[in-house]
Design a protein that fits this description.
Order of helices and strands: HHHEEEEEE
Helix content: 55-70%
Structural class: alpha+beta
Strand content: 15-25%
Oligomer: single chain
Number of domains: 3
């Protein structure tokens, strides 16, 4: 009987050791699970940060595109008006010194309309590109002719064939010019 009690005591000790081992394994497993969960949380947090940054960038690009569209909103209509301005200028050049003839009276009305058009363009922030006697600028001008003139250094605009215009800060029509060589 005593032997059986000793066996039971050993069994109790073994059971106690086994319980401790199981507890240690569970704690280790919980630690590993905690570390895995922390890694998963960190990974998800990084994804959220990246997506948030991407959304902010998209919103910023969208706002910039919208602002640009609003800024140059009237560009197309202004481009269509510029040839009309050119035609008015050609008609006005036909005027002679005789102010009593029918052509001069007719052209005086043209001059008023032309002045009104220029005022509207100026209010719309459209400016003529100043090119005559200035150095050639390939961004704002297109050289259609070259010529040599004594006393004028190369690269200077000699004549403006067609006026160029800037709308706000953007060239909407380059000036067609004759440049010295």
């Amino acid at each position: 009987m005593e032997k059986q009690k000793t066996d039971n005591k050993i069994s109790d000790k073994e059971i106690l050791k086994g319980k401790q081992k199981v507890k240690a394994i569970k704690e280790k497993k919980n630690k590993n699970n905690d570390e895995q969960l922390k890694q998963e949380i960190n990974s998800l947090n990084e994804k959220v940060l990246r997506l948030t940054a991407e959304m902010q960038n998209m919103r910023k690009r969208h706002d910039e595109e919208k602002a640009k569209m609003c800024k140059y909103d009237g560009e197309e209509i202004i481009k269509k008006i510029l040839p009309i301005v050119d035609n008015f200028e050609r008609a006005i050049k036909l005027d002679d010194n005789n102010l009593e003839d029918e052509l001069s009276k007719f052209l005086s009305g043209f001059k008023m309309i032309y002045g009104n058009l220029l005022d509207v363009l100026q209010l719309s922030e459209v400016k003529e590109i100043e090119a005559l006697k200035k150095p050639f600028d390939p961004i704002l001008m297109e050289a259609v002719l070259t010529d040599h003139e004594d006393g004028i250094e190369p690269g200077i605009v000699l004549d403006v064939m067609q006026k160029g215009y800037v709308y706000k800060d953007k060239a909407i029509r380059v000036a067609m010019v004759k440049v010295s060589e």
